Amino acid sequence: MSDKPRRLLRNMNAKIAAIPMILTTLVVFVGGTIWTVVYSFTDSKLLPRLRWAGLEQYERLWGTSRWLISIENLLFYGVMSLVFTIAMGFLLAVLMDQKIRHEDTFRTIMLYPFALSFIVTGLVWQWILNPQFGIQEIVRDWGWTSFSFDPLNSPDTVLYGLLIAGLWQGTGFVMCLMLAGLRGIDEDIWKAARVDGIPTWKTYVVVIIPMMRAVFVTTLVIVASGIIRLYDLVVAMTSGGPGGNASQVPAMYVYDYMFQAQNLGQGFAASTMMLLSVLIVLIPWAYLEFGGKKHG
């Protein structure tokens, strides 16, 4: 028997056991995705129906101010969240990598917010940022009566309030990913850098960070995909307000049109655009992780 048939028969029990999972993935995920894209070109209202409308739903989508505002909000929140989450997560991982005492305790404390749902996080931070009994009221009780901190009730600052809550929940997870990457660096590299007299900060910038490229790319993809699906946090903290659309995000647009406005075609079109944005993130990552290695 040649090597190829022998490799195909290897671990046959595991491959057979994986068939139901593979079929479920194909039917539910791939089938559901195709179904959504197909019906985004119809004029489905309360119930899906195959009456073609061409690009009408997409033209209406990109001509709606609410959708455009939600895209702008997501871009602002996404860029700020990516930059600060990865930067803060890496800095915390560097501090944690110094073999500090009670590291397990600190790591658990930092990772705990990630175990909470976005709904819980949103409700907690809605209370913390409430001017009547949150940070503003506490600081005023200390004597600074003119202190003002009410980000969720102003259209100009509401996204910063959401960003605070998002960073609180996601930074610990990024820290753990970065810490795992740092622990994978060979200790001999650090010894060689010390012998050569290279400053610690320069070792991180010139040597360590480039070696952790795969960790940074993976973290970027995980965080970006979560940002695109942002919904729970906004609903719990602001419900899209204040002022109507100040904190609207695409996922809220999809939900409202599919389940409240009873316009499935418009909801499917918005869902397809969200899927496209996810693919824009995943395809370059897949190429860097698999295609680049293959060509190398």
From TrEMBL:
Segments crossing the lipid bilayer: 21-42, 74-96, 108-128, 158-182, 203-228, 268-288
Domain ABC transmembrane type-1 intervals: 71-285
InterPro entries referenced in this protein's UniProt entry, alphabetically: ABC_transporter_permease (IPR051393), MetI-like (IPR000515), MetI-like_sf (IPR035906)
Presence of the UniProt keyword Ribonucleoprotein in the record: no
UniProt keyword list: Cell membrane, Membrane, Transmembrane, Transmembrane helix, Transport
GO cellular component: plasma membrane
Gene3D superfamilies xrefs: MetI-like
Record-linked Pfam families: BPD_transp_1
GO biological process per UniProt: transmembrane transport
Topology in the lipid bilayer: Multi-pass membrane protein
Chief location category: membrane
Locations listed in the record: Cell membrane
This protein's record includes keyword Transmembrane: yes
Top-level taxon in the UniProt lineage: Bacteria
Annotated family: Belongs to the binding-protein-dependent transport system permease family.
Protein name: Sugar ABC transporter permease
Native organism: Tabrizicola piscis
